[in-house]
Amino acid sequence: MTTIVVRSPLAGWCLPLEEVPDAVFAQKMAGEGVAIEPTDGIVHAPCDGEVLFPKEARHALTVRTAGGQDVLIHVGIDTVKLDGAGFQRLVAAGQRVRAGEPVLQFDLDLVARKAASAATPVLVTAGGRIVRAVTGRIVAVGDVLFEIEADIAAAPTAPSTPQGPEERRHFGVPFEHGLHARPASVIAGALKPYEAEVFVHAKGRSANARSTTAMMSLGVRCGDRIEVVATGTHALHALDALDSLFTQPTPPAAAGMPKPATSERRSAVIACRGIAVGPAVQWTQAEIAVPEAGRGVTEEREALKLAIGRVREHLKSLAAEASGEQLAVLEAHVELVDDPELARHAADLVARGQSAGHAWRQATRATVALLSTLEDPRMRERTADLRDLENQVLRVLVGKGPSSSRELPLGAIVIADELLPSQLAAMDRERLAGIVMARGGATSHVAIIAASQGIPALVAAGRAVLDVPEGTIVILDAEEGRLHADPKPEQRAQVERSLAQRAVEKTADLARAGEPGATKDGTHIAVYANLGSLDDAKSAVTHGAEGCGLLRTEFLFLDRREAPDEDEQLHAYQSIADALGDRPLTIRTLDIGGDKPIAYLPMPHEDNPALGLRGLRTSLWRPELLHTQLRAILRVKPASQVRILLPMVTDASEIRLVRSFVDEHCRALGLDSAPALGIMIETPASAILADQLVNHADFLSIGTNDLSQYTLAMDRGHPELASQLDALHPSVLRLIALAADAGRSAGKEVAVCGGLGSDVTAIPILVGLGVDEVSAVPAAIPRIKRVLRERTLAECEALAREALLQSTAADVRALTGAKR
């Protein structure tokens, strides 16, 4: 055996292939290796050898060692779509190079903006296996990445003639960018089970179909015709396997994502419900130009320090006047702008001669590229915050104010690729009617701020919305998740009449919001509020909430560097309890993991975080946070006002264990009795076992968001499935009915605190299923109380029975005359 050392061709963060946002690379279909999030744009030879370039492509290269080992470097993900823009070869194809010699130059800014990711896989595609790989740290050019163990006896020899029949077949290439790395890897992977030698013939050349780099070198484009020749025992089977790939009307999923729809009416993810009509405002902003070279290390370092300081003070001044979610976002941005790793990275680049602006841009975008590879959608959505800070600091460096603003027309529907929090904060709220973003997610900071301010908002709407002409009248329908451009006059008039009617109803509803929730025949249904801050609590009281059915305590734990201590938590909980007066306060223990990770509690890698350490599982995995939180909750006065709610419970033993913790802390604090301890029903398992779990819990609270996700097997953060994920699906309603029946039999309260509790269409059905309490966003409470007053309990029960017999969520909504 001989060992070949492969050194880092780039400076940056080295990560495992599993974290690359591309199935072919992450599943190692293209080969074993690692990936690098680059911080500069020069690729160096990772070892001695001959440089091979894919024909007509500039974004990838292979270095072939004397022993026949192929090391592939593929700059970025989906960079084939750049058609070579921003890439420059520094050596000729076939040239021999030494390790560390520059071989390729690329525009990192362009790749960061235009490609799916800047993550650069470094793979062994032929000739050996990897040992002693390095990941999870910063690497410099020339640092050892891994070693290749290669058998000298296995060095290339003349190919033997395969035994068996020969089969030939012609194909047209359907892949959008030809046989680039991903489809070539898919083809090679499809051939693995078969004993056959397979070659692709095109343009007078041939390549081994099991070699990704060989196929890339053919330069085959979309629409080209190729001949595939297979020889061996499984020759026919091999061609059949390829037939299923090449005869698709569109490329396989791993070979390229489908193009976005171009329709002006498109389903999107709803970030904040509502409807608005107004002129489209396309929010675009040219990238701020900054020089690459600095004017001296001392001068550039001081300029960067002053710019960061000015942005910090600007954020603090905005925070002093903000509240609720917007305050939390601004405080998180203050933390980010002071991040020591970000500052260190920028300082290192300044020390190498870069300007303050270029160094800051490179440092923030390297972190953006790293976050973009993570599986957790919430962490990926934090990239918008970093881009926001990048923009603010660069604006100061070029002599502008930190925030950009623009005068809006009255009733503006702002459309953007991705809106930044500072941009939203600078908009005139009196003129802004709605927001539509081509990208983004429902848990992005812009979406959270929009929801907190009641601004109808759609996210992940697709790039087609960016083609809506400026000034075009549009209908933003954030009830069905659609944007209608240039509607017909009668359609616009109908929506405007509906909005006027809603305004009248809203005024009337608010006037009666202080009345208790009750059906037409006087059956009391408690209408509580879901809270995430002190300002939410104040708003809940204004809107007639009878209490808090769910306090999401994550607002204290996310977007910070260390966990809040017991006293900080107590102060927050007590402030909210005081704001509610004598109304009940249900405090949910920390619900992290899955889509809500926290930086100071490193989570183990999970292939599917939604099925891993979630909610109470995380708290029991690291119980020190749970104990601190329980002590803070138990110190709230008066104790009779507080209830404790446990998330993601699936086993009675979990309830018993936490109850023992609560009893232990009650004794230590000298309390005579413990508060009520409830559990969330969020999985099919807990709903099916509700009749057992309720014997150990004091009340049940149904979380319909996760219950729908797990029942329907649809990721609730998936933009393409958002319109299908409906908690009124009969399968979800049947599980709610099981939990409600269990609570009724045990004489214990059953609440709904998930998104369905804010859906006025669902309220009569929930009541008919036996739900005693609904907990909703504060703004929905007055309307929910009106809906309750319009039906008797018997009518609600009849509607619920009929809903359980339906086949789809659409059928259920049709019963109520409502649409999704």
From TrEMBL:
Residues 166-254 form the HPr domain. Residues 22-126 form the PTS EIIA type-1 domain. It catalyses: L-histidyl-[protein] + phosphoenolpyruvate = N(pros)-phospho-L-histidyl-[protein] + pyruvate. Its main location: cytoplasm. GO terms for molecular function: kinase activity; metal ion binding; phosphoenolpyruvate-protein phosphotransferase activity. Pfam families: PEP-utilisers_N, PEP-utilizers, PEP-utilizers_C, PTS-HPr, PTS_EIIA_1. Its cofactor is Mg(2+). It comes from the Bacteria. It is found in: Cytoplasm. The keyword Magnesium applies. GO terms for biological process: phosphoenolpyruvate-dependent sugar phosphotransferase system. Its EC number is 2.7.3.9. Belongs to the PEP-utilizing enzyme family. This is phosphoenolpyruvate--protein phosphotransferase.
